[in-house]
Write a structure and sequence with these properties.
The protein has two helices and two strands; from the N terminus they run H-H-E-E. The protein has about 110 residues and is mostly helical. The protein has a domain of about 45 residues. The longest helix is centred in the middle third of the chain and has 39 residues.
């Protein structure tokens, strides 16, 4: 318990050495912080307004059909070279199904049967 009392006495002694600001300084610094905060808010708000307005005008100037997402052609044969004349399916979802690895012994693979 003596440790806490000693700590409080030392803290009080240190606080006596602090150069506290006067009431006028406190008011001036408070007004300064508030003014700078308002200035930064207005500055950021102005740029936000400018960019939002510009983007809105840019989007409204675009043709109506330009906002639709593009669909990529997908080969129904799995050929990705583009050299075949296989029919293309527009916008079809691609489903990837994992398959078991082939155990073809002609490729040097070994089969493990139990």
């Amino acid at each position: 318990m003596a440790g806490i009392g000693q700590y409080l006495k030392e803290t009080r002694a240190e606080l006596r050495h602090v150069a506290w600001p006067t009431q006028t300084q406190t008011i001036v610094y408070t007004v300064l912080v508030a003014a700078i905060s308002i200035g930064v808010a207005v500055y950021l708000g102005l740029f936000d307004f400018i960019f939002t307005t510009g983007l809105t005008r840019l989007i409204s100037a675009m043709p109506q059909g330009a906002s639709a997402p593009a669909t990529l052609p997908v080969s129904s044969t799995g050929n990705t070279t583009g050299s075949s004349n296989a029919p293309l399916i527009q916008g079809a979802p691609i489903q990837i199904v994992p398959t078991a690895p082939s155990t073809n012994s002609s490729q040097g693979g070994s089969t493990n049967t139990k």
